[in-house]
What we know:
Layout: E1 5-6, E2 31-38, E3 42-50, H1 61-65, E4 68-70, E5 73-77, E6 83-86, H2 88-101, H3 109-122, E7 134-143, E8 155-165, E9 176-181, H4 198-202, H5 205-213, E10 218-222, E11 230-233, E12 236-242, E13 245-248, H6 259-270, E14 275-277, H7 282-290, E15 294-301, E16 305-314, E17 317-320, H8 328-341, E18 352-354
Parallel strand pairs: 1-3, 9-10, 9-16, 13-14
Antiparallel strand pairs: 2-3, 2-8, 4-7, 5-6, 5-7, 6-18, 7-8, 10-11, 11-12, 12-13, 12-15, 15-16, 16-17
Helix pairs in contact: 2-3, 6-8
Residues 72, 235, 301-303 line the site of 2-OXO-4-methylpentanoic acid (COI).
Amino acid sequence: MENLRFEKRAELKQKPTDESSLGFGKLTTDYMLAINYTGAKGWHDARIVPYGPLSLDPATSSLHYGQLIFEGLKAYKTGGGEIVMFRPRENIKRMNTGLERLCIPTLDEDFTLDAIRELVNTERGWIPSGDGTSLYIRPFILATDPVLGVTASDSYLFLTILSPVGSYYKEGMSPVRIFVEDKYTRAGAGGTGYAKCAGNYAGTMLAQKLAAANGYAQVMWLDGKERRYVEEIGTSNAFFVISGEVITPPTSETILAGITRKSSVELLRSLGYTVTERPITTDEVYDAYKAGRLDEAFATGTAAVVSPIGELGWKDEVMKLTGGKIGKVAQTLYDELTGIQLCKKADPFGWVYRV
Ligand code: COI
């Protein structure tokens, strides 16, 4: 690719030998992509360079005020040895939406996609091929002005790092315990909930830690105003199946527009399921559970893929779903989605991007 320089690493890292114990985000590869921005030059100096520590002025504004947006997408090695990514352009579009909200200059979609593809191609030897494994791609942009005043920076650094991963949850593709969080919330009207900005995640860690102390893998977030409407689950989107109908909250200014969520809605509809995007309250979920109509619940996300919910803790109740097994809709969705991602199944939607 023109305008992308390459700086060779003196010594390569040791690649993992046991793909079954990768976990999530523990390892990084040999190279990263970097692009700088200044008001005077725009985005410039795109390069693939050895992965390594950054040198930042301690006054770097993003370290203080969180002017930082990130993304998450995956590359896969198919059974035929091809390298593919899943809907990467969608991630760049979503990143641009978040960048606008945080007053960060947007990216050129084509150039960014080409540059990420080039990085993935450089690091193809790091892409695992075991069941449930992939190469997680983490693009992010941070403000780099060394200024303590609270204003949008004039300089930025775009980076993309790569991590060979297995399952996000230690449980793998098996039912997880989720706690309905009705004290802390992650987003409010007019805020940044829909953007993948670092601060949104910092604010979730206390609730996550408290839930984990009670044996829960993640929390289910409710709306910030009434604590009644389901918004998200941990770092993923929420789905319920009630009397055969699949229901997911509509995306909004407080909900991240998940690409796996959007793909799941389309995919399930194409398989003949009725999928309704509408607000759903915890009361409705509980009433359906009590009436024996809550068939299953699951979460979708790039990292989480499709995570079935085995137990849903709400106030003093624990709703036990699908007898601790993976629900039928979650399993079907997982099989179909990963089938497309790994080119084991036809891709009528054109979602697979060949590297
Ligand atoms: C993803 O699914 O890509 C996410 O962003 C989750 C991440 C925060 C671990």
